[in-house]
Specification:
Layout (H helix, E strand, L loop, with lengths): L12 H10 L9 H15 L1 E5 L22 H4 L11 H4 E5 L3 E6 L6 E8 L4 H11 L7 E7 L8 H18 L1 E5 L5 H16 L8 E7 L15 E6 L18 E6 L9 H13 L14 E6 L3 H12 L4 E4 L4 H9 L9 H12 L8 H16 L4 E4 L9 H14 L5 H15 L2 H8 L12 H9 L3 H9 L4 H4 L3 H9 L5 H14 L13 H11 L28 E4 L8 E4 L2 H11 L3 H10 L3 H18 L6 H27 L1 H9 L10 H7 L3 H4 L2 H12 L8 H9 L12 H20 L5 H13 L7 H9 L2 H24 L8 H22 L7 H10 L1 H20 L4 H20 L1 H4 L6 H37 L6 H15 L43 H35 L2 H18 L8 H14 L16 H27 L2 H57 L70 E3 L9 H4 L12 E4 L5 E13 L7 E8 L4 E3 L3 E2 L6 H9 L1 H7 L7 E7 L9 E11 L5 H12 L7 E5 L8 H13 L5
């Protein structure tokens, strides 16, 4: 057995993740020629062929006895020097050589199919073939091996059964990841398999679902095999199908994907591949299933279609190796013979019945069968039927087996249930197989039944396999059947394993890079456990630095650049984080961990299941949206498929968050708002609102519930229902706030509390005493809200962000008015009081910008805050305006008049920027805000358009300037002519200097002597412009055509498209950007500029001098108490279930779903009608057969009645009618086959292969076991392992006759003597525990059987029982239990069905049992003897009494009887 990485359970983090990340591309670095050289060198070293080295002519001229012609032999073989005078022998004269036929095989015809092939020696180790297929041919290890066998010649079956077989075979191979093994030629059952693959290939263009069909054929019977031969391999070899010219040979099937061509050095001999194919199947069946070491190996199933005698041998040998077989009834010949008798008891499967069936299904071929062959086949068919747990018959007319794929998988599960394993182990093996096959339907119908009771821990291995194998349907099924995510991820090791088995994805590559960069090198290979350190750091990087680590670091010393993180097993742990950041507080949240694991690999289906397990589902969905958008951004491929997929999944999770929040907001708006501002411990102590903002989830922010919260924060303590004019009026006449003119939120809360109290009074009015009512009302009054006092009303009003905004608007207009007055009226050499006030005002604005830069509103840190500040366009305008103002102020304060004027110019330009900054203030307006967004987008389009326009302007301007003016050296006039004038032409300013009719000498300077005039164009002798007038006019027309018509209309089209595109989303974008303005004014001091300097001074004193901690903004972040948080999360989970239920209902009622459902129903009805038509004829035939059987039985009964009446002397005047029946058509030999004993005859004593030898028994059918039954052809071989003088003498052997009947072999066999061989087995038992749950027996190890057996030995003649027991148990052990043996009970005495029995020697055993008390003194002495014999040749050991302990059948039966006596499970 080949080992498959026994240390895969605890891989090294970097190695495992690196392999997972790059396994899809690890071979891309090698060229195809390098790969060919690699596989060629490996095949030459490990794979051999066979060739004849001694030519000896056969009967045919020019043909060697090996079957090959003389020309295909080497010169050394034709003229051998070493074999002179020898006769040709296949063992001596066929030698192995390096193979010369391998590579790629390309089949001609439609599709140009390409496969792999290799010519191998029949003695090739199967390990080498498996390595070739998995490592060099890159085949994935199979989850199932389907060995298809049957008729090797072409045959026809019913079209519907053929379609069922093809569809079912492909479906089971596709869904389970199976390998299909066939004979590989284009004939018989192999052709049907090839046609099935062809149909699938034509209907499926994807290469991912390629079916692996491996043909194992004989090299010597392949037609046109010379095209496959090349010493260095063929890449590819062209092979075409030629059935007309193949003769006795066979062509390869063009639909197979891989070929193993088995060579024995001969030509034209069929069946050479059978032995190697059997060894290969056995090796594959020993390989572990999947990546985990669960103990489950690759299952093998044999599918039988039609077939002959050779197929019967294949089925028989397969079932002896515990391989289940599926026989397709209706496919013909042998398959139909087995199908006819499969449901009968073995006693009814007689020679006569098999004869009839062979004659019926084999037709003319039946005449070639000998009597001994039919006897042997009958015996094998009986043995096959006896192994009912390994035999499955697919009957087309039965509904329960309507699909071949279901029949195949059910056969494997049925076989696994019957193996020597306990009930729980059997169920777990079946579940592991179903997960590996990814067949949820099989698991639902066969495994998760009422009989099986599963606990969560029982399903954990299957859950892990389903997650790692990306089987979301199975994950959902396991969760429905009892898997608890909390228990599954209770320990961090399981989560580490999941991350270690991440598939290749962008996150995996980032994780590997982080591990390598962090320490400068990969971690030491000695580390075994995977820490979640790097996962936590990478996830925090994706979420943002405003979050804390999801997994806490371990308590250990860390270096400056190294922090190791691991997940706490439970609860909440506070541990220090890297750097000078806050203390990390992590929680154990298995639902989040499962969801996050699925999200980072961008697996939507698994993530959907994980999201359903999350309690904090809104925050989880928004976090997933943030992670995926960040991954898509960092992938570097904006339009790549992976990035698009990530963005699509991010939008999906945003939709999920909106759906749940909408459900919550519809039920209770207040609790819904609390959900999005509560601090989520599971997601790094951030809020859902902040996650949505960071993820750029505009649709979530634009939700009416979120906007209601923002409006409430915008109004502060004021009611949102207050009209604007009331607020503006109170800003001027603030005493109005004390008169009830304005409504405060506290007033609304008090009113709601009063209404609630009234409702409580009405509710408590009936059925309650006065004392109870007073107590309830008193408690509600104690918790009632009190109205705001005068000071609170004043503070609340002026601290409202809305009021702050209005004051700042008024202040900003005042600033602009003052700025304009200074620039136009009062800009003196020495600053006036107005100008000084302007400087103070600007200083307050500068201080406010500094405060905004350093004010950490959400705790994201200064670096993050600085990046966000720079990214905002309005902040850039603020900085630019301040820098320009300072520059203008510096120039203005200079003494020089020129510099003074420059300062004024800078201030005038700065005034423009300050006016543009006014647009940012009005983004809060529902009317102007969206329009400002449209203007910003159009400005971006305008800059792009200006680039295109500049190309035409410069092109035309330079050409015009060069044609008109000769060597202009003045830079200002060059720019005017090349850029300025062409730009003005676009707006209708047509130049006059390009047309001679409008030329005026006074408008220009000839030598450019006048700096105020342009230089004249090139003049001729008559002072007339000499430039080509026709050319300049044409250039102007072309320029106007492209610039004025084409580009301007293009600009209009671009702006129209942008307007239309943005117009649909402006409301969403405006609502999203509204948050920033609300946040700014929420944290802004109440006083407007320039009085805001007072607030800045107070903040500076508190923060810098007094070290007062900054105020927390509870409106945006709120930490709930544990009880309140649990209630809120439970309510959120309920709302999530409501949302999912309504979403499923809506999906089921959609038009697409209805169309799909209708199509499925129509398809099912069509299939039922087709099946009904097929069933009518077969059902009628079966009914007629049953009716004929009943008539036959009635005839027999009537005949018996007539005979009974005659024996009593009753006579009739009429002659009795002639009673005939179908049973009387049989010959006389049938009556002798009826059983006369209650029990079935021995079976193990009739196994065809005698144990420990190469002797084959003569086949003895069940009906011919009895010695009284006539069995003329019976000629058994004689065998004695230990020859003696008379052990082979027929006269001596005839004296001894096995009482159990015929066995198929004569002589002593492996037994000691002829006749009776007595044996005794003393069995000591005890209870393992005080609960008496497990019964144990004392076993002895037998090297011959390689297993633990019952202690026992041969009984010698006339030997007392005490001496026999002493010889068997040993002197020491016998002395200890000698006194106890008197209480021993005899379990069984008599003949046993043993495989060593012969016709003349048989085994009879006596089983006695002695039960001992575990705490008795005798038991302690026995235990010491057992320990002392542990190193002997036959050690003793206590073993559990179970069906899998002993290999010998009669010993298992003895243990079953003992377990039955003690009333325990066996």
């Amino acid at each position: 057995m080949v080992s498959m990485d026994e240390t895969a359970v605890e891989p090294v983090v970097v190695q495992t993740l690196a392999v997972s990340a790059f396994k899809g591309a690890r071979y891309l670095s090698h060229s195809s020629s390098f790969q060919r050289c690699s596989i060629s060198s490996w095949i030459k070293e490990n794979i051999k062929k066979k060739s004849c080295c001694f030519y000896e002519e056969d009967v045919s001229e020019g043909i060697c006895k090996c079957g090959y012609p003389k020309v295909e032999h080497s010169d050394e073989a034709i003229k051998p020097e070493h074999y002179v005078g020898e006769e040709w022998s296949s063992h001596r004269h066929i030698r192995e050589k390096p193979t010369d036929a391998y590579g790629d095989i390309r089949f001609g015809g439609f599709g140009q199919k390409t496969g792999k092939y290799v010519r191998v020696s029949m003695d090739t180790p199967p390990e080498s073939l498996y390595q070739l297929m998995t490592e060099h041919w890159k085949l994935r290890p199979p989850n199932l091996l389907i060995s298809v066998t049957g008729g090797a010649k072409n045959f026809s079956i019913k079209s519907q059964l053929k379609d069922k077989f093809r569809r079912g075979l492909i479906k089971v191979a596709q869904t389970t990841g199976a390998w299909i093994l066939t004979g590989g030629t284009h004939a018989g059952v192999m052709k049907h398999v090839g046609m099935a693959v062809r149909d699938y290939t034509l209907s499926n263009s994807s290469m991912e679902g390629q079916i692996v069909v491996i043909g194992v054929a004989t090299w010597g019977i392949i037609h046109k095999r010379h095209t496959l031969v090349h010493p260095e391999g063929c890449f590819p070899a062209d092979y075409s199908l030629d059935e007309a010219g193949q003769g006795r040979l066979s062509c390869l099937d063009i639909n197979h994907s891989h070929f193993l061509l088995v060579d024995d050095g001969t030509h034209g001999r069929y069946g050479v591949e059978i032995e190697l194919r059997a060894r290969l199947e056995k090796l594959i069946s020993q390989q572990p299933l999947g990546k985990r070491e669960s103990g489950v190996t690759v299952p093998v199933v044999c599918v039988v279609l039609e077939g002959g005698p050779g197929t019967l041998n294949t089925i028989y040998n397969s079932m002896l190796n515990n391989t289940p077989c599926v026989v397709l009834e209706g496919s013909g010949r042998l398959a139909d013979v087995i199908a006819q008798v499969a449901s009968l008891p073995v006693s009814k499967v007689t020679l006569v019945l098999i004869n009839q069936l062979l004659k019926r299904f084999f037709a003319q071929e039946y005449k070639t069968f000998s009597e001994v062959q039919i006897i042997e086949w009958t015996k094998k068919i009986q043995d096959i039927i006896r192994m009912a747990h390994l035999l499955t018959v697919f009957r087309f007319d039965e509904e329960k087996n309507s699909d071949v794929d279901v029949a195949i998988l059910q056969a494997l599960l049925k076989a696994s249930r019957s193996e020597d394993s306990t009930g729980r182990q059997s169920w777990e093996r079946q579940l592991e197989l179903a997960v590996a096959w990814n067949r949820v339907d099989i698991a639902e119908s066969e495994i998760f039944t009422e009989e099986s009771q599963w606990t969560s821990s029982d399903l954990h291995p299957a859950m892990f396999s389903a997650l790692v194998g990306d089987k979301p349907e199975f994950v959902r099924l396991l969760l429905e059947n009892g898997v608890c995510v909390q228990q599954f991820l209770e320990h961090e090791d399981r989560l580490c394993e999941l991350y270690a088995h991440l598939p290749a994805c962008f996150f995996t590559r980032k994780l590997v890079k982080r591990v390598q960069v962090r320490r400068g090198q990969p971690p030491a290979p000695g580390s075994k456990n995977i820490s979640l350190t790097h996962v936590s750091e990478e996830v925090r990087h994706l979420l943002g630095s405003f979050t804390q680590h999801l997994y806490a670091p371990p308590r250990q010393k860390t270096t400056k650049d190294d922090v190791s993180l691991s997940l706490p097993s439970k609860g909440s742990v506070e541990l220090p984080c890297s750097g000078a950041e806050w203390i990390a507080e992590t929680v154990w949240d298995p639902g989040r961990d499962l969801f996050l694991w699925a999200v980072v690999q961008n697996n939507r289906e698994l993530a959907e299941i994980g999201w359903e397990q999350c309690r904090d589902c809104i925050a989880a969905a928004l976090a997933a949206s943030k992670i995926l958008r960040k991954l898509a951004q960092e992938s570097g491929e904006h339009d790549g498929e992976e990035a698009k997929d990530m963005r699509g999944h991010a939008d999906h999770y945003e939709t999920q968050a909106i759906g749940v929040f909408s459900e919550c907001h519809a039920w209770d708006p207040q609790r819904a708002q609390k959900l999005i501002i509560r601090i989520s411990p599971s997601w790094g102590r951030c809020t859902s609102l902040w996650l949505a903002l960071e993820a750029d989830d505009k649709r979530f922010i634009a939700h009416s519930g979120v906007q209601a919260l923002l409006t409430q924060i915008w109004c502060g303590e004021l009611s949102v229902d207050n009209p604007y004019w009331k607020i503006l009026l109170c800003m001027i006449l603030f005493p109005l706030i004390y008169t009830g003119f304005l409504t405060f939120r506290r007033d609304e809360d008090i009113q709601r509390e009063a209404e609630k109290t009234e409702q409580q009074k009405l509710a408590l009015g009936s059925g309650y005493t006065d004392s109870k009512i007073k107590h309830r009302l008193r408690s509600s009054q104690n918790s009632a809200l009190s109205p705001l006092n005068c000071g609170s009303r004043f503070t609340s009003f002026f601290n409202s962000p809305q009021v702050k905004f209005y004051w700042n608007i008024a202040a900003y207009f005042g600033f602009l008015w003052l700025f304009a007055v200074v620039l136009m009226i009062d800009f003196q050499t020495f600053p006036s009081w107005r100008e000084l006030l302007l400087y103070i005002w600007l200083g307050s604005l500068v201080c406010e910008e500094v405060r905004q830069l350093y004010h950490d509103f959400d705790g994201s840190g200064f670096r993050k805050k600085a990046k966000m500040y720079i990214k905002d366009v309005w902040n850039i305008l603020d900085v630019l305006s301040i820098v320009l103002f300072i520059s203008g102020l510096v120039c203005r304060l200079q003494g020089s008049s020129a510099v003074f004027y420059v300062g004024k110019i800078l201030l005038c330009i700065d005034f423009i920027i300050f006016c543009l900054r006014l647009m940012a203030i009005f983004t809060i307006s529902r009317t102007l805000g969206p329009k400002i967004i449209i203007v910003r987008r159009m400005m971006m389009d305008l800059f792009i358009f200006m680039f295109l326009l500049s190309i035409w302007v410069v092109a035309y301007g330079v050409a015009k300037q060069g044609i008109l003016i000769q060597n202009e050296e003045r830079l200002d006039w060059i720019i005017r002519g090349a850029v300025y004038e062409p730009y003005l032409i676009i707006f209708g300013n047509i130049p006059t200097n390009i047309d001679n009719t409008q030329f005026d000498m006074n408008s220009c300077s000839v030598n450019a002597s006048d700096p105020m005039k342009p230089k004249c164009p090139v003049l001729n002798d008559e002072n007339v412009p000499a430039f080509p007038e026709w050319l300049t006019i044409i250039l102007l027309c072309v320029y106007l055509l492209f610039a004025n018509i084409l580009l301007l209309n293009l600009l209009i089209a671009i702006l129209s498209y942008t307007f239309q595109e943005v117009q649909d989303n402006t409301d969403t974008i405006w609502k999203f950007q509204r948050y920033e303005l609300i946040k700014e004014y929420h944290s802004r001091p109440a006083l407007p500029p320039p009085f805001i300097l007072i607030s800045h001074l107070i903040i500076f004193i508190k923060g810098v001098l007094l070290r007062t901690p900054p105020q927390k903004h509870k409106h945006f972040r709120r930490e709930l108490e544990k009880t309140e948080e649990e209630e809120l999360l439970s309510w959120e989970a309920l709302m999530k279930d409501n949302y999912l239920s309504s979403a499923r209902q809506e999906e089921s009622q959609s038009t697409e779903h209805r169309i799909q459902d209708t199509a499925e129903k129509v398809g099912a009805m069509s299939e039922l009608l087709e099946r009904e038509q097929e069933m009518v004829s077969s059902t009628m035939a079966k009914r007629l057969d049953k009716l004929e059987d009943q008539v036959s039985e009635s005839t027999k009964a009537l005949r018996w009645i007539v005979d009974a009446l005659k024996s009593q002397g009753y006579k009739s005047k009429l002659e009795p009618p002639l009673l005939t029946g179908r049973s009387f058509d049989r010959d006389d030999g049938d009556s002798s086959g009826q059983e006369t004993e209650d029990e079935a005859p021995h079976t193990f004593a009739r196994q065809l292969q005698y144990p420990g030898s190469n002797v084959t028994r003569f086949p003895v059918p069940e009906e011919k076991v009895s010695w009284e039954t006539n069995f003329t052809p019976y000629l058994p071989p004689v065998y004695s392992q230990q020859e003696s003088d008379n052990s082979s003498d027929a006269s001596v052997l005839d004296k001894y006759r096995n009482p159990g009947g015929r066995t198929g072999i004569r002589g002593k066999g492996a037994l000691k003597s002829l006749g009776l061989n007595q044996k005794i087995h003393p069995i000591l038992t005890r209870w393992r525990d005080a609960e008496k749950a497990t019964l144990e027996f004392l076993a002895v190890w037998k090297d011959a059987e390689k297993c633990w057996c019952l202690p026992g030995g041969q009984v010698k003649a006339n030997e007392p029982l005490s001496q026999t027991l002493e010889r068997i148990l040993g002197k020491k052990l016998n002395e200890r239990i000698k006194s106890e043996l008197q209480a021993a009970e005899q379990v069984y005495k008599g003949y046993v069905d043993d495989s060593r029995n012969t016709d003349n020697a048989w085994l009879e055993v006596t089983i006695i049992t002695l039960h001992l008390d575990k705490h008795s003194p005798v038991m302690s002495q026995i235990n010491s003897i057992v320990e002392s014999m542990s190193s002997s040749l036959q050690p003793l050991q206590w073993q559990e009494v179970s069906s899998k302990t002993c290999a010998c059948p009669y010993q298992r039966e003895a243990l079953r009887l003992i377990a039955q006596r003690h009333k325990t499970d066996f």
